[in-house]
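Slide 14.
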Amino acid sequence: VQDIDAEIRPLLEKYTGDNNSNEAIPGSPRPVNISAALNKTLQSLAPFSGLILEHVESEIRNNYMQKLSLKLLAGKYYINAAYLGQLFIQKYGVSFHDYLNMVRMEKAADLLADSSFSINQIAELCGIPNTNYFHWQFRKHYNCTPLEYKQLRRS
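Slide 15: predicted structure.
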């Protein structure tokens, strides 16, 4: 909201003289306070945003092994992908992609500890067919390789 307000404020000042004025914008049939209207609209969407995030989180947790993208899920829930990305960062403190990788690495760690699957099979089962990328992500999250993790958990 602050970023949007920062973009709108100069326009309001240009057309109205100040950002709280209710003077008409040239060509507008009636006075408009754009900042107030935008804030009111965003506040009215807040309950829906939370509900959408719950569905998206569930979608990620249930389908982490599939090819998921912000654009795909945004389309499924009829929301702008950039807006969904912002909501994700606001709620979880990380991007959609980072959250998806976190879920995948949690599942990978569970499989490494409790299954006889190979590391390549686990990477595939977690939705990361590129084993080099899988190793890199795993090391990033757990500070060890998948093989080291597997050996530590089984000893």
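Speaker note: The chain is about 70% helix and 0% strand.
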